[in-house]
């Protein structure tokens, strides 16, 4: 586990006590939860604006803010090299072209993600976007020819069951948006494709996640412009009564900052814990997010509706745990084989 041991060594070579490390990990996890949940509620507010229905422009603006923040962080890292650590993000057209296929998937991911949130709301968002694990298994087999264990498939079956039960129960209350469900499925597929293509493209940007985010968001900003024009969002924006309202643009800017921050806190949580713990934390965060949304919007949900959420979250948690055990077993097998070979040779 992440907290195992009495003393740990940090990056500067200093020894941290168990209590201090526990406090640091708790702070990082809380920070991740705060940024992630706040971003979801903030995006829901921005996208739910009935006076201005411009989801593509909202997503474009957040990408633009991310590019600007990357430039700022790059500048700060040059001015304060000891305090800020950020890779150089000089634009290279050749690298941009190589990242372009991933950027197209990235655009689909963030656009469908926001459209799913807009149409389904925060409470049902977790269930609507729950099929990314299922698509991971399916696309890994189709594209990478990777097979999946029976127990992992069983977990996927639980997630699928929870998804269909959730759709049924949301429909029973009369609040189901089929377009939101479709957007959720497409977002889940794009999340899985994004993970697969990221592994292929990372070497192009020296395996730097921040560089990849920089090029992804620059490409996205360029590709979003014709889409915004095509879907008539410019005319809607022009006729918006609060076009020069500082409060509205402050909210938009805040949404972009949180969109940038989620990448940082995600990496921070993985660094201080592990990928497995990060996934477990994300699942628990989704559960808390659903409960908060139901309480905040004073919604009344049926027992079966809650059951669907429990199935989705439980299946996701179990899948993460099973994959973690399988990875651990895979890593231990070569070590065991090496020991066995040494014993057989009489060493």
UniProtKB/TrEMBL annotation:
GO cellular component term of the entry, any: membrane
Subcellular locations according to the entry: Membrane
Key word Transmembrane present: yes
Domain named Sugar phosphate transporter: residues: 24-319
Pfam families (UniProt xref): TPT (PF03151)
Claim: Transmembrane is one of the keywords in the record: yes
Predominant location category: membrane
Membrane-protein topology: Multi-pass membrane protein
InterPro entries in the record: Sugar_P_trans_dom, TPT_transporter
Name of the protein in question: Sugar phosphate transporter domain-containing protein
């Amino acid at each position: 586990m992440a907290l195992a041991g009495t003393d740990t060594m940090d990056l500067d070579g200093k020894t941290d006590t168990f209590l201090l490390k526990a406090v640091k990990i708790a702070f990082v996890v809380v920070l991740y939860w705060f940024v992630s949940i706040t971003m979801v509620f903030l995006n829901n507010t921005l996208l739910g604006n009935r006076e201005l229905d411009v989801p593509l422009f909202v997503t474009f603006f957040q990408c633009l803010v991310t590019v600007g923040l990357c430039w700022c962080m790059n500048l700060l890292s040059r001015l304060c090299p000891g305090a800020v650590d950020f890779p150089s993000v000089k634009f290279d057209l050749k690298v941009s072209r190589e990242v372009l296929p991933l950027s197209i998937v990235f655009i689909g991911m963030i656009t469908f993600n926001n459209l799913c949130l807009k149409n389904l709301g925060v409470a049902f968002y977790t269930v609507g976007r729950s099929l990314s694990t299922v698509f991971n298994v399916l696309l890994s087999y189709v594209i990478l020819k990777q097979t999946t264990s029976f127990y992992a498939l069983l977990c996927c079956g639980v997630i699928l069951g929870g998804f269909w039960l959730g759709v049924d129960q949301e429909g029973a209350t009369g609040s189901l948006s089929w377009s939101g469900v479709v957007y959720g499925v497409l977002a889940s597929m794009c999340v899985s494709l994004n993970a697969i293509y990221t592994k292929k493209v990372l070497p192009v940007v020296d395996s730097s996640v921040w560089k990849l985010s920089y090029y992804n968001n620059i490409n996205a900003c360029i590709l979003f412009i014709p889409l915004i024009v095509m879907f008539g969002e410019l005319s809607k924006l022009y006729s918006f009564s609060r076009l020069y309202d500082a409060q509205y643009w402050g909210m938009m800017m805040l949404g972009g900052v949180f969109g940038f921050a989620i990448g940082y806190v995600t990496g921070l949580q993985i660094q201080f814990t592990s990928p497995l713990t990060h996934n477990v934390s994300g699942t628990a965060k989704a559960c808390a997010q659903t409960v908060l949304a139901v309480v905040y919007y004073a919604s009344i949900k049926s027992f079966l509706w809650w059951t669907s959420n429990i199935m989705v979250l439980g299946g996701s948690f179990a899948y993460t745990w099973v994959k973690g055990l399988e990875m651990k077993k895979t890593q231990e097998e070569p070590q065991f084989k090496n020991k066995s070979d040494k014993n057989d040779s009489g060493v």
